[in-house]
Amino acid sequence: MLWLRQRQLHFGVKDFQAKGSLIVTCDFMGYYAFSYRIPPNIDDTLTSSDVIVREGDNVTLRCKAKGSPEPSIRWRRDDGHKIVINKTMEVVEVDGEALELERISRLHMGAYLCIATNGVPPSVSKRINFSHGLDTPPVGWHTDVL
Hints:
The protein has strands spanning 2-5, 8-11, 21-26, 32-42, 51-53, 59-62, 65-68, 72-77, 83-86, 89-91, 94-95, 98-101, 110-117, 124-132. It is mostly beta strands.
């Protein structure tokens, strides 16, 4: 609630709980504007979990975060190595909610960080482990044992 008493602006909120910061601005004409800034929070239900893949597969990791203003997402490897996108491209960071990796090899294995930022501290990250799946025989396949 906002009111003016004796030329002073008063602001009161009842039963309001949130993590963030309320910004009140006043322009030279005396108009007030409110904005609520909320730090980023990674939505685990819409974000990839640890991944086990086979060599040669293409994989897309996804990361979604909420906050106000809307968070931006970037990806890094946890070990500091470059991200191998494909045969001809390696980068330190990738911007965007999706990290697309082509023709997976052992060079891709390790932990990747999805980092969400929006200018409201703290930034948050989620670690996604990327590992090589052993080649397992198809169901019903038998091996002769001597």
